[in-house]
Amino acid sequence: MPSALDRSADDPDGPSGARSDGFASGVRTRFERYRNLQFTDPEIAAMLLAPVVAYLVAVSYYPIAATIWTSLHDNALGLRGPPEFVGLENYRSLLSNGSFWNSLKVSLIYTGVSVPIELALGMGIALLVNRRFKGKFVAQAAILFPWALPTIINARIWQWLYHGEYGVFNDMLLRVGLIESPYAFLAHPTSAMAAMLVVTIWKTSSFMALILLAGLQSIPEHLYEAAEMDGTSRWQRFTDITLPLLKPTILVALIFRTLPAFQAFGLPYGLTGGGPGESTTTLVLFDHRITFSQLAFGEGSAAATVITLIALAISMVYVSTLYEPEVR
Amino acid sequence: MATVDGADERYSSLQRIGEAVGFYGAIAVLVAVSFFPVVWILLTSLKQPATIAQFPVEYVPDPVTLENYRTAFEQAPFARYLFNSFVVAGSTAIIDVVLGAMAGYALSRLEFRGKLPILLFILVSAMLPYIGRLIPLFQLFRSSGLLNSYLGLILPYAAFQLPFAVWIFQAYFKELPDSLEEAALMDGLSHLGILFRIILPVSAPAMATTAIIVFVYAWNEFLFALTFMTQDEMRTITVGIALYQGQYTFPWGTISAATFVSIVPLVLFILFFQRKIVRGLTAGIGK
Fold it and tell me: Is A3–B187 a contact, with Cβ atoms under 8 angstroms apart?
């Protein structure tokens, strides 16, 4: 059992180089004992947590409150005299703006189509690599790479791949005979949306796989062995063992992907610029535009408030579903 | 040839080979699909301007040229953009490691009332949309002169990733044995002494995980970087590449060169820190 006595006895014979160090730390320990022992757990916790909480209030919570405040005022920046309280006026003009409804539709389609496909592909990848094999290092690098690539730079890369005149996709499709002349993927509303969906599915399916893989690895091996001895098929084992036990992980993966997908900004900005027309203008791209290009800060804040409320509602739905298994 | 580990000996060797071919075929497709866009960017960046705008496409650059890299770094300020990104992402990572370790220690190893509300207060901030925080911070930073400054990006980035940092540290500290502190308390160390002399030295893995993932987030962020950095010389690499325009035609060669250079640090990160990244992204899952 270590004690102060042992330590002081050790010091003179300690390993070379530790001698002056041991002496200094001995003095410091005594000093700290006088200075710090009077602090209790709650006091130390307050000292450690206060800066963190204050920081989050200032940079995360206060801005949300300020956004709501701005959404209820006209001239909130005070550029033309004092701000004026206008009630829900900004919301009224937002809801009568066709571009808002269009961008809401774009974001819902974007989220609703991409997230389920990402989940299915991610599950496939996770099941594929959930074993020991030579070259796992390379496979894992391939899984991490799309996650690490900046969204906006990725958008630029794919803009080049999709290029209507010199793009490599056009070249490949021509060579295999699927098209007869180069097609401007990003110049037509439907194909632009489809092109954007392909990019986000490419980028985030592997992230889904990573999350699901962590869940798969926590399922005990003996469950599968027992089921295999009972003569069940692979598919049965997947639906009877894997899926139910993976449910909490799937919900985490869904929440991790749904919120960012609903807030997509960089991809439409860099790939299509929201076009053609407004066919790929997502909610956040719309909001950014009316706020910083048209300088409609009141309406922009109203849109930001609506986005915040929807995002919180999505989180709440997921979390309430997620919490159930732990309560039981 | 390589076979899948654990393949049963009852299988005929033919079946085993068939399965291995199918499995490695699927892995090959995964690897090819993941890396294809970047391979294409590399090939484009090595082509001469005349062969870039050419159809049918020339797949192998001939002759190979580094002209595009020279343009990207001599005529366009991509070196400056990369430097800005390093400063912002590095500072953000340091702040989150320090604050994350402090809060994580308090939440996992100290006894006090109100622990759960504080943890929730920290974690819920991660669910707030970025756009909901953008407009007031823009106004605030404009009036306080923080637009076009490194601090103007570091402050929001560090706050946005702080919930993640706290989560990683409190999960890591929770796993450490209680005996660590008991021995130290008996030696007369104070709580702060325990944190700085006992806990922090053994938490290098949590620090690395937090630093890497926060760094990648800050390096990749676009919405705030685009809005807050309006002066060209303050742009980060993401904004620099997104807004780069050529004088006459769209400069795909230069863009490709700059893009490829900006990706190299990420690829090195992934190769060196693979396990830490995976552990960080999946912390708390499947437990």
Answer: yes
B280/B287 Cα distance (integer angstroms): 14
- Find, in chain A, the residue whose alpha carbon is nearest to that of B100: A52
Q: How many domains does chain A have?
A: 2
Contacts of A171 in chain B (CB under 8 A): 55-57
A211: closest CA of chain B, how far (Å): 6
Q: Do residue A64 and residue A147 come from a single domain?
A: no
- How far apart (Å, rounded) are the C-alpha atoms in residues B254 and A86? 49
CB contact under 8 A, B110 and A41: yes
DSSP labels for A170-233? HHHHHHTTS-SS---GGGSHHHHHHHHHHHHHHHHHHHHHHHHHHHHTTS-HHHHHHHHHTT--
Domain that holds residue A81: 4-85
Contact A304 B106 (CB under 8 A): no
Q: Is residue A90 part of a domain?
A: no
Element (H, E) at B117: helix B115-124
CB contact under 8 A, B270 and A144: yes
Q: Number of CB pairs < 8 Å for A and B?
A: 311
Amino acid of residue A189: P
Domains of chain B (ranges; CATH) run: 13-69 (no CATH), 77-281 (1.10.3720.10)
Low-confidence ranges of chain B (pLDDT < 70): 1-11, 246-249, 284, 286-287
Instruction: Compute the distance between CA of residue B137 and CA of residue B217 in angstroms, rounded to an integer.
Output: 19
Q: What is the mean pLDDT of each run of 10 residues along chain A (328 residues)?
A: 39 41 56 58 86 93 91 74 80 90 94 95 91 85 88 91 87 86 88 95 91 85 83 83 84 86 93 90 93 85 93 85 51
A177 plus A283 within the same structural domain: yes
- Residue A65, in any domain of the structure: yes
Question: Chain A: nearest CA to B210, how far in angstroms?
Answer: 15
Q: Check: CB of residue A121 under 8 Å from CB of residue A197.
A: no
Nearest CB to A39 within list B106, B140, B191: B191
